[in-house]
Amino acid sequence: MADMDLEVWKGDWDLPSVDTNCLTVLAYCKFSGVSIDIKATNNPRKSPTGCLPVLRHNGSAYTKVTDIFSYLRRKNWGIDFELNSKQSADILAFTSLLETKLLPAILHLWWGNSQVFIDITRPWYGSAVGFPQSLYVPNRMHKAATDRVETECYPHLEMTPQEKENLIYKEAQECITLLSKRLGNKPFFFGKTPSSLDAIVFGYLAPMLKAPLPVNPLSKHLGTCYNLCQLCSRILSKYFPLSREELEEKRKREEAEKARAQELGDFPHRTRNIVLAVLFALSSMVAFTFFTGMLALEIVDADGGGDNMSEPKGQGKRKS
Question: Which residues cross the membrane (predicted)?
Fold first, then answer.
């Protein structure tokens, strides 16, 4: 299939893209073997819906993940043809579960958490879109994400923001646990070959595993689901191997992070040593000054003290 273009957000942190939907579609295309021209445009303004990814072919554009999957299946590039009716129903059920339970937590984590938004999300997307779009695109995406969480997550329940956040993360963890149980010891959800469910789960979980978020309440729980972590690693190594240049960049980044961690670890000890050295120098100076003064005083006293001053030279007796 010629002249098929896929516009996505660029990759980072050893991922082919940092966006959940872009990762999902990229994985689906890799699994199906479709020939496609991937363009990291980082420009949602050219999308019909203002979002990425966008699949373009024969003058048509598709932006929703489900629409892209359906179009590829119609062109005989699907990956679920061998599944039975129960397995196909499982895909629909888990896809709905992910959208209602895990997606709100991911949106809240990346866009609703102020520390993550300030430290990671806004700088990353601002750098990706460039100036002047960096002035408004990240804020627009922030509003869209937070509005969606606000309107779709328990709008009829009266609770504080902290209570809502706790509930969002709790249900996300339960969703991750269910995925882990469904995967079991299999390499992929339905056996030895990947399905659209594997692509969808990969799109949701891989950024949580790879992105250096300063706050990540879901990563600890996800780390206990070893099979899901292995699923993401398996997909990355088999379908998205790093190039030689990317491997070298990764090595340099890891060395820099290790050196920074070493420096931070040595900081308290180095500071302690400097403080002790300064205190020792000050005490030595004080002791030297004190003993020097005592020595000078003893010399003066040995010469006769201050009450028996000798008569100035050259001054004779006064005549009577």
Answer: 274-297
DSSP letter string, 16-39? S-SSHHHHHHHHHHHHHT---EEE
Sheet holding 5-7, edge to edge: 37-39, 5-7, 54-57, 60-62
Burial-class residue 204 by CB neighbours within 10 Å (0-12, 13-18, 19+). Answer: buried
CATH level 2 (architecture), domain 5-241: Up-down Bundle (1.20)
Which has more confidence, 247 or 307? 247
Q: What is the mean pLDDT of residues 300-314?
A: 46
The domains of the chain are located at 5-241, 253-299
What is the length of the chain?
A: 320
- The angle, 0 to 180 degrees and rounded to 10, between the axes of the packed helices 161-183 and 226-239 is 70
Task: Work out the number of other CB atoms within 10 angstroms of the CB of residue 226.
Answer: 10
* Residue 7: burial class (beta carbons within 10 Å; 0-12, 13-18, 19+): buried
Closest by CA position to 1, among listed 53, 58, 79, 60: 58
Place of tokens 């799109």: 203
Place 277 in a pLDDT band, splitting at 50, 70 and 90: low
What's the confidence (pLDDT) of residue 247? 80
Which one, of 28, 27, 36, lies nearest residue 2 by Cα?
A: 36
- What whole-number distance in Å separates Cα of residue 28 and Cα of residue 280? 66
Instruction: Give the pLDDT confidence score for residue 139 in this predicted structure.
Output: 96
Report the pLDDT averaged over residues 224-234.
Answer: 98
Lowest mean pLDDT among 123-132, 205-214, 244-253: 244-253
Q: Which of 181, 214, 148, 220 is nearest to 201 (CA)?
A: 181
Q: Rounded to whole angstroms, how far apart are CA atoms 43 and 31? A: 25
| Average pLDDT score over the chain | 86
